[in-house]
Amino acid sequence: MTVEPHGEDARAITAGRTTLGIELGSTRIKAVLIGPDHATLGSGSHDWENQLVDRVWTYSLDAVWAGIQESVAALLADVEQRHGVRPTTVAAMGVSAMMHGYLAFDEAGELLVPFRTWRNTSTGHAAEELTELFGQNIPLRWSIAHLRQAELDAEPHVPDITFVTTLAGYVHWKLTGRKVLGIGDASGLFPIDPLTRTYDARMLAEYPGAALASFLPEVLVAGQDAGHLTEAGAALLDPTGTLQAGIPLCPPEGDAGTGMVATNAVAPRTGNVSVGTSIFAMVVLEKPLTSVHHELDLVTTPSGDLVAMVHCNNGASELGAWAELFGQFAAALGRPAEPDEVFGALLREALRGDADGGGLLAYNYLSGEPITSMPEGRPLFARTPDSRLTLANFMRTQVYSAFGTLSLGMRVLRDEGVELDAMYAHGGLFRTEGVAQRLLAAAVAAPVTVGSTAGEGGAWGIAVLAAYLAAAPEQDLSTYLAERVFGSAETVTVAPDPEDVRGYDAYLVRYVAGLAIERAAVVAL
After folding, report:
1. Is 323 left (phi over 0), alpha (psi -120 to 50) or beta?
2. pTM score, two decimals?
């Protein structure tokens, strides 16, 4: 039932003083509308899944637009139900999406090969070549690694390429006509020079393949003009014609950048952990690293500050699969429960487990994992005859496995002497209060802070970046977030429990030794 329009929120919606954020995540596309105070006024979402087609992880472009349109339609309906008015315009909007991957287009704007997502790990030769050439780690999932591998493999589409971009860059291009990228997303396409805030000129000149400068998107920093929603873009976004053309857009960003914004982690000596299909940590550096580490990527904040990123291909998906299985078991007993209820109960049970997981071992590898040099994924659970198999230990082990590869990368950062004043966490895993937060603190051996926006995620983060367009001439992004977005935000910080840390350390020794089992499974299964 639609409510009658009333209140300041309804007036802000009618007057177009709101901002809209859309993020295309790995399993969900979400649209969020926020008010002048940055509070969420409505949201809409669409679930989707990548497809393994000819051994390539991909999403179709038709699925991209169908998902966006469904998310926007659900958002408009939600706003109308909550506030009694349906927005026709907003002050600004933005698009973000999963980073990296490979979208290559010809002169006519046609996609040359199916979208290759960050999840593909078939670029080993290219990544190794470019890492040695540039003196900087080039991960398997980076766009430039995908392009170079296509060149090395002499793929027939390569001579026809005139434009290469990321998923966020593609959507933004279709909405505005502008071929641009926010600097954070661009830093996962090709290395960025933090001094010039654009692609590294030396590395561009040294690149052994095509003349890249001619078909890479323009790099923009947070707050810069990134174009306006065109008539064609408005029709793609909302075929009903409710949302009108002319809306300004902020630079399109990657999910890593929007996660940093959503957790107020864009200043030096701050970091954040984002947990979803993948899991990654972003740590804003005070100075460059002393050496190259394959576990660490060098990317940037949306403002262009240097960030060390620990990116793991596998996050909470395996946890979700076990929760679904236990939900099916509950239904078979005649006691069905909502997925969130099942997930919450299982997570809380994990706190009752032994600190080391009772001798159990699990790997959440649905896909390959570059940090541990795993070419493909095989989800795995193993135990010894004398291990303590309980539900509590099983669930603690599953949570530990979601953090396992991440903690290996974080230890490399610690050995580099990188110091953190604050580590923030966000993602749906943290909606169950105090569980994942406490165990993550043990895994990274540092206090972890979760705020009231922890479950909002990147769609809210890109909406905040859209709102920042109006403030950019007067304030830098870090100050804007600290003073105007998070000034009164509620947060909870959990310090690592010494017993949990000792238990996790024992688990991690077992985890590293057991990688031989995972490698054997890749060969045998």
Report:
1. alpha
2. 0.84
